[in-house]
Structures are given as C-alpha cells and as structure tokens.
Amino acid sequence: MAEQEKNRISVDIYGHTYKMVGTESTGHMRLVASIVDDKMKEISIHNPSLDTAKLAVLTAVNTVNDFLKLKEQVEKLEEELKRLKG
C-alpha cells in the first residue's frame, strides 16, 4: 500500500512559527492552527498570568473537553438514527 503524500507548511500559533506535516490538505492544517491560535488567545485574555506552556496545556484540556462533548452528541444522534430506522 502506497504511503499518502505529506504536505508541509509553516504556521503561526500564539506568536511562534511551527512546521506542520500531515496528509491533510494545507487548508485543513491552516484551519487547525488558526483554531488553536484563537483558543490560546481567548484563554490568555481570561488568564493573563499564564506562561505559554500552561496556556498550551489549558488549551489542550479545553479542546479535548469540547471534542468529548461533540463525540457524545454524535453517539446520541447515531443511536437516535438507529432507533428511528427501527
């Protein structure tokens, strides 16, 4: 099986440049970086004393929390769809 071609881009997140490599489109990777950057800025407004490392961890915790809530919603919708299909 052939390995998918990897895209490489540079992105700015919270004032730092990072190289991203992935099989997703560069547009997708830029969107991910933009969302992380926005979330870090949002959290830093409410917690201005956090250093970058703590801010990054808090951003990750918030992001995983959002992910788990969405995953639970999807599972509930899938169960409802199965029930309706009967």
UniProtKB/TrEMBL annotation:
InterPro entries: Bac_CellDiv_Activator, Cell_div_ZapA-like, Cell_div_ZapA-like_sf, Cell_div_ZapA_firmicutes. One of its GO terms (cellular component) is cell division site. It is found in: Cytoplasm. Gene3D superfamilies: 6.10.250.790. Transmembrane segments: none annotated. Its main location: cytoplasm. Keywords: Cell cycle, Cell division, Coiled coil, Cytoplasm, Septation. SUPFAM superfamilies: Cell division protein ZapA-like (SSF102829). Coiled coil: none annotated. One of its GO terms (biological process) is division septum assembly. It holds the Pfam family ZapA. It comes from the Bacteria. Homodimer. Interacts with FtsZ. Belongs to the ZapA family. Type 2 subfamily. Activator of cell division through the inhibition of FtsZ GTPase activity, therefore promoting FtsZ assembly into bundles of protofilaments necessary for the formation of the division Z ring. It is recruited early at mid-cell but it is not essential for cell division. This is Cell division protein ZapA. It comes from Lysinibacillus composti.
